[in-house]
Amino acid sequence: MGTLWHEVVGHGLVGTLAGGRITYIEVLGFELWPQPRWTGWQGHYGWCDVDGIADQTGEHLMALAGSLSTWLVALAATIALYASRWRGCRTAVLVCLSLWWIDLFTYTLPTWGIRRSILWGPVYSEPYEAAVQLGMPGPLFQAFVVATSALLAAALAIRLTRRSLG
Q1: How far apart are CA 19 and CA 6, in angstroms?
Q2: Domain-wise residue ranges, the chain
Q3: Residues with Cβ < 8 Å from 32, sequence gap 6 or more?
Q4: Which of 40, 65, 91, 127 has the fewest CB atoms nearer than 10 Å to its CB?
């Protein structure tokens, strides 16, 4: 679900808002658009092709939006875990969603020479490159990713520990 969100809401929606048109969506070997079918594993988790974005700023925003969209879901889910008294399935869903910060974190690993999935995956950091092209200093982006990833992980651990103890 995280990969689907990353591709469709992150890249697709933002690319469309930037004036583009979605021409292709693939997630985990399944082509979703323009024709649903199995294409097989292509060596990447997903792909959303958006054509016709008018300027480079829109292109860079679309590139950044994939992982940033999953990070925003993780932030919202973590806040919801603190604000709610839900139990059972609702809590399980929020816990799963609160882990989506991992997308932005792992997509930043290539900036230190580590493959995205540690043993496989690209050595290209899409969100990092986009943020730098939009004017953010690379080390500042890396610091943001590491700090917020650590905070989201710690917040989840604290909430789960307190929930199980209380």
Answers
A1: 19
A2: 2-165
A3: 8, 25, 26
A4: 40
